[in-house]
Amino acid sequence: QKRRIWDQLAKEIKTDEIVVITGPRQVGKTTTLQWLLDQVPSKNKLSFDLENLSDREFFETKNYDSLVSEFQHRGLSTKEKMYIGLDEIQLLENLPSVVKYHYDHYKIKFFLTGSSSYYIKNRFSESMSGRKVIYEMLPLSFQEFIDFRGFAYSTESEDFFDFIEFSKPAYEQLKNYYQEYIDYGGLPKVVLTQDINRKKQLLEEIFSSYINLDVQALADFKSTSDLRRVIKLLAARVGSKLNVTEIANITGLTRVTIDNYIQFLEQTYLIRNISAYSRSADVQTRLQKKPYFIDTGIANVNADLSSGSKFENTICHQLSFWKGTLSYFSSRDGEIDFIVDNGKEVGAFEVKETPTEVDYSTLVRRAEKLGITKCRVIGREPSATFSKFLWGGFIK
């Protein structure tokens, strides 16, 4: 099944820069890498999987020039441009210097995948600056979810701030798909699995591989059991202000340890933290953040989320596909769940399972105090008296 990002990636084949694709486990990076190499018109290409021990050892050589000879032995020619795909780059610490050397000396075009921005930011040296472009792959949007399930329907609105009347026929066609999307998330392998018990099993396996592979490979935490406890506490607090002191008191861990865990979880695509909305960067830094999981299915593996929490987490994911900054607003008067600022316009969103006219008028009043005029209430279920809301299934 095709991912939307593929059209953008295909344009990178003709460029010189190293292409890096990062994102959570099981989001489709390996499939994307193979698809991308298939689009390369030349036969002068090879791919390597660094989870494979022999492939990893192949790139652990200290004699970088010898790699080119090995490429030739495997059928590549140095007389034309070479294309090399490397999967799971976070598993090889010295890989950035290997890639940089061959990029600089042999003009090899590299396509790389990794499941950690932690690796990209902390182990990809600054000398790679100007040599690489980075793409993030996230779990499926709802439109992609429908596409993967073979249902021909475009869910996208041209402008989410125009009042679109709720469509009962569209809702009836899509509501079961959307409920499944809310319950089990958007990881492709899970989406393509019909059996509910198998979905749950897959989510458990994917989360376990995250703990056993990513955490073990990228961190030197003394206890993964402590990390798992923190993950469960974060899952139970989806959409709530993050109180690090409270979590430290519950777990008996220090605030510094909790902060390190949370930073790692963000950088390895398990969670995303949403900052409070403020025009002052200093104020924004001081205010508490709200945690959400990158994939709602993974969140639900770690806590028995309420239907409202699952829905809000799903909306957070859907809005993350918008180009812009995602934040929330809180005051004595109440909160605004999400504010999207794309640099040109700012929109306010309130998430309600069954929206009402009062929800909308309250949102408008709070947003006006911030100078925000574009507002939408996002709902999951139809309301008997209010139709001018945005149904969650119409967001990407």
Describe this structure in words.
With 396 residues, the chain is α/β, with parallel strands linked by helices. It has 17 helices and twelve strands. It has helices at residues 5-10, 29-39, 53-58, 64-73, 95-106, 117-123, 142-148, 168-184, 188-191, 196-218, 224-235, 244-251, 255-267, 281-286, 296-302, 307-319, 357-368; strands at residues 18-22, 45-49, 83-87, 109-114, 132-136, 271-276, 290-293, 325-331, 334-341, 346-352, 374-379, 390-391. Strands 7-6-8-9-10-11-12 form a seven-stranded mixed beta sheet, with helices on both faces. A five-stranded parallel beta sheet has the order 2-3-4-1-5, with helices on both faces. β10, α17 and β11 form a beta-alpha-beta unit. α12 crosses α13. The longest helix is centred in the middle third of the chain and has 23 residues, at 196-218. The protein is globular and about 70 Å long. The model has no long low-confidence stretch (mean pLDDT 90).
